Amino acid sequence: MFNNLFHPELDKAPKSNLYSHQPRILKPHPRSSRVLGGFASIETMRSIELLARGVLIHNGCVLLAHRKGATNTFLPGGHILFGESAEAALVREIREEIGRPVRVQQFLGAIEHGYGTEADPQCELNLVFAVECASLSSTRAPESQEEHLEFLWQPLNDLARVNLQPYPLWDLLPQWLEEGAKVGWGSTLKKAASPTS
Fold first, then answer.
1. CA-CA-CA-CA torsion sign (29, 33, 35, 37)
2. What is the rounded distance in angstroms from the CA atom of residue 121 to the CA atom of residue 163?
3. Which residue has the higher pLDDT, 136 or 86?
């Protein structure tokens, strides 16, 4: 049943080369269009960005980032590098953004997000963590260490006003922060069609 998912060249390759540091170039699987859900080939598949996001709360407000000139806000954090843990990436990204150390407290949930245009679609998976930063004040947003960003404190019950993205966080974030809440999941992508019998 699963044989169609594996590349036929891998079965012919010497096992010692499979995990070597020497790159091996594989030709597209002849059935890649069918196997990969309509993509023309492995080379043309788009990737999903993997991000770590931090939720810093002070006096009922959450710290949000805003890219200058944009119409939306987002949680601080950013890309997870290959081989880096999500927690390490979040600590690194927030230090780069606001110049302060943070401590990751707990995993709150994950949210997949599709955006962009039909010609240039984008997709990301956000891993969201509660984060603590003892040196932050809720009376004044921290100064950005990155020229293209600015930060603001926004009441948790008013996230739509500043167009927090991904937008399911408007409702999910307050739920995830409730004491004893279970890890959550959210998505802006269409749900898969139910299989037909």
1. positive
2. 20
3. 86
Give phi and psi for 120, each to the nearest 5: -135, 70
Listed residue (186, 180, 182) closest to 53, CA to CA? 186
By three-state DSSP, how is residue 94 classified? helix
C-beta separation of 154 from 162 below 8 A: yes
Q: What pTM does this model have?
A: 0.74
Written as one letter, the residue type at 49 is: E
Contact call for residues 193 and 103 (beta carbons, < 8 A):
no
Segment holding 145, helix H or strand E? none
Cβ pair 111, 100 in contact under 8 A: no
User: Encoding tokens for residue 43?
Assistant: 């080379």
**Tokens read off for 41:** 């080939």
